[in-house]
Design goal:
The complex is a heterodimer of chains A (113) and B (114). Chain A is an all-beta fold and 113 residues long. In chain A, 0% of the residues lie in helices and 50% in strands. Chain A has no helices and twelve strands. In chain A, the strands form three sheets. In chain A, strands 2, 5, 6, 10, 11 and 12 form a six-stranded mixed sheet that branches. By secondary structure, chain B is mainly β. Chain B contains no helices and eleven strands. In chain B, the strands form two sheets. In chain B, strands 2, 4, 5, 6, 9, 10 and 11 form a seven-stranded mixed sheet that branches. Classes of the chains: A mainly beta (113), B mainly beta (114).
């Protein structure tokens, strides 16, 4: 079945460091791909999404490119801030309308000042 | 403001005492769902609803009930809670169940069953 695998955390970086959180998926066809962020004590918020191959989603300095050839959707940011500390979830929504959105297990990110 | 609200945000209860967690959205969304979040397991879907009076099981429906009598509300019911239902619960909604839609999440309900 369809699945999402993301790198395990926690990931700890210093402020202004470059961030990459890896996400790979298994799915038939062309699913939509998402990154959600969960700040402490809050629900998940959509960070960015891409709905077809080679699309690049971007928001708040974060980017991710839908790579069909490597079945990946890695999250990147050039210079992280303390306020980026959160849990990040990669998610996949299959093409089949009857299938549900599938979340990765989440990656906790700590940014040190 | 477009939002999904849940109540209560925190709840401590005892085994066997029926409880309801409410969820409401003000975006006229058709699709609503409930998830539980547990350490190391990520988010798992409990139940979902495609529209009013249409509900179906997700990955982990055992021990839960839902209803969808109105479009905006989707309560989660635990008839006889047990300690293994201690978790963080999220309600979510989206316009439809189309793969390009965005899901909007509530702030979460932290439930402890003693």
């Amino acid at each position: 079945g369809d699945s999402v695998t993301q790198m395990e955390g926690p990931v700890t970086l210093s402020e202004e460091a470059f961030l990459t959180i890896n996400c790979t998926y298994t799915a038939t066809g062309y699913p939509s791909l998402f990154w959600y962020v969960q700040y402490p004590g809050e629900g998940l918020q959509l960070l960015l999404k891409a709905t077809k191959a080679d699309d690049k989603g971007s928001n708040k300095g974060f980017e991710a490119t839908y790579r069909k050839e490597t079945t990946s959707f890695h999250l990147e940011k050039g210079s992280v801030q303390v306020s980026d500390s959160a849990v990040y979830f990669c998610a996949l929504w299959p093409m089949n309308r009857d299938d549900k959105i599938i979340f990765g297990k989440g990656t906790r990110l700590h940014i040190l000042p | 403001e477009a939002q999904v609200t849940q109540n209560p945000r925190y709840l401590i209860t005892v085994t066997g005492k029926k409880l309801t967690v409410t969820c409401s959205q003000n975006m006229n969304h058709e699709y609503m769902s409930w998830y539980r979040q547990d350490p190391g397991l990520g988010l798992r879907q409990i139940y979902y609803s495609m529209n009013v009076e249409v509900t179906d099981k997700g990955d982990v429906p055992e021990g839960y009930k839902v209803s969808r009598k109105e479009k905006r509300n989707f309560p989660l019911i635990l008839e006889s809670p047990s300690p293994n239902q201690t978790s963080l619960y999220f309600c979510a909604s989206s316009l439809t169940r189309t793969s390009t839609d965005t899901q909007y999440f509530g702030p979460g309900t932290r439930l402890t069953v003693l």
